[in-house]
Specification:
Blueprint: E1 21-25, E2 28-31, H1 56-62, E3 68-71, H2 74-77, H3 86-96, H4 110-122, E4 127-133, H5 136-153, E5 161-164, H6 173-178, E6 196-198, H7 206-216, E7 222-225, E8 229-230, E9 236-237, H8 240-253, E10 256-260, E11 284-287, E12 299-304, H9 305-311, H10 330-345, H11 348-367, E13 372-378, E14 381-386, H12 397-407, E15 410-411, E16 418-421, H13 429-446
Length: about 450
């Protein structure tokens, strides 16, 4: 009998069989139906022996089912330090032996208290309150509801949301509404509310974006943006100067600024938070993915004190009405606490800087290659567009690329014809060579 599981973002008619992952360590995943380890024996964390580094094309042609995969996209952008970091694993074990779950309405626990205080300490200045949820989508839903509640409770009729063209903020109704309209959400259009959409501030078009924001911000509730880089929208990069100017316009108009750092937070763009590069602080900040080091689902929405104060009242109708059953799960919070301690105690920023430099070195081989265009990097993230006749998210080459990379021993999941690399910070130079050899081999086969 085939599996009864319905997988996310998967067309089962084209990929009926899911890959069974038995174990993860560092930057690697072991693939084996029996759960046995693959070709590489583990040494220290993140430094296990790797499979032979044959050419990517030879591997793709000769090994349709590799026993190990290099996780070059951090398992959908969540794994930061590497799979199964020992400190995070130990924190999970210890917490599971003390308290597994407790209602978070009118109750609290030490891991949640510790993580909240640590987040306030490292977050952009002015953020004073932490609201927990359990995914990037819900952290953004919380942010949008905070913004609307702020204006309603202050007696102001400001309900319009402003967002960027090509944005992606999640798959719940509010986040889909703030995201770009397209194949992701076309079937659900009757559920979605209208937002004011700004053109993406591509190089040379920045002023158009700013001019339209200046008009739209008058009387708007909030602007929501992914700072510096749009993720699922195609890894599109814009400058810190634009983010700084957008922030100034919001300040002048009184419009709240929501930064969706679900993907960009915890070092992906080269700094702890992307907004640091613009020298700005938002009114509301959304975090998830790397918050727990990628080990367990946990999200947080941070806000300024005046947003909390707008909901603080003896009038119970002003309560912030949002929750999930597993809000601030103690085990997930323990993992996040360990992750934040790793950031404090280990040279994580040095690893990020080294990874960014290695990524840039490997892009030099591709920048002059006519099979690629818009070769780009921001921090530890690289992306490039493979030249094909039908560019876009539904480009026919996308599923073929994914199969080719898998056969090459690399987990890459292109966004249509856009190939991106976003590995965990423990990835080695040799590992990256395997990734970029696979990309070059794919270009030779498909471009």
């Amino acid at each position: 009998m085939s599996s009864p599981i319905w997988h996310p973002f998967t067309q089962h008619a084209l990929t009926p069989d899911a890959t069974l992952v038995a174990r993860g360590e560092g930057a690697w995943l072991d693939i084996s139906p029996s759960g046995l380890r693959g070709a590489g024996a583990a040494t220290a964390f993140g430094q296990q022996a790797s499979p032979p580094y044959a050419s990517a094309l030879a591997r793709a042609q000769g090994e349709a089912n590799p026993t190990r995969l290099l996780d070059a996209i951090s398992s959908w952008w969540v794994i930061t330090h590497g799979h199964r970091h020992p400190r995070i694993v130990e924190a999970i074990k210890q917490q599971a032996d003390q308290l597994d779950q407790v209602i978070f309405a009118n109750f609290t626990h030490q891991p949640a208290e510790d993580v909240a205080r640590a987040l306030i300490e490292i977050a952009p200045q002015g953020l004073t309150r932490v609201f927990y949820s359990d995914s990037g989508s819900t952290s953004v839903e919380v942010a949008l509801k905070m913004a609307l509640g702020f204006w309603k409770n202050n007696g102001k009729d400001r309900t319009r949301i402003i967002a960027l063209e090509h944005a992606y903020h999640g798959d719940t109704v509010g986040t889909m509404s703030a995201g770009a309209r397209g194949v992701y959400n076309a079937a659900y259009a009757p559920l979605l509310y209208d937002v004011i959409r700004l053109p993406f501030p591509a190089a040379g078009r920045e002023q158009q974006t700013l001019d339209q924001l200046r008009l739209a911000a008058q009387g708007a509730a909030a602007l929501i943006v992914e700072p510096l880089i749009l993720g699922a929208g195609g890894m599109l990069i814009y400058s810190p100067d634009v983010l700084r100017d957008m922030t100034a316009i919001c300040r002048d108009s009184g419009t709240l600024l929501i930064l969706d750092e679900v993907m960009t937070g915890f070092g992906r763009t080269g700094t702890l938070f992307a907004c640091e590069q613009a020298g700005i602080a938002p009114d509301i900040l959304c975090l998830a993915k790397g918050l727990s080091g990628g080990s367990l689902p946990l999200a947080a929405t941070l806000c300024r004190e005046e947003i909390f104060a707008a909901h603080y009242s003896t009038d119970r109708s002003r309560t912030f009405f949002h929750s999930s059953s597993f809000t601030a799960n103690p085990i997930a919070c323990a993992a996040a606490r360990a992750n934040l301690e790793i950031w404090r105690d280990e040279p994580v920023r040095d690893r990020i800087a080294a990874l960014a430099a290695r990524q840039e070195e490997r892009l030099t081989r591709l920048r002059g290659d006519r099979r690629f265009e818009n070769v780009r990097r921001l921090g530890t993230i690289t992306a490039l567009d493979l030249k094909v006749p039908d560019a876009g998210y539904l480009a026919n080459v996308a599923p073929e690329l994914m199969k080719f990379f898998h056969a090459s021993g690399v987990l890459l999941r292109p966004l249509g014809n856009t190939i991106y690399v976003m590995p965990p910070y423990c990835v080695t130079a040799q590992d990256l060579d395997l990734v970029y050899d696979a990309i070059l081999a794919a270009a030779g086969k498909f471009a």
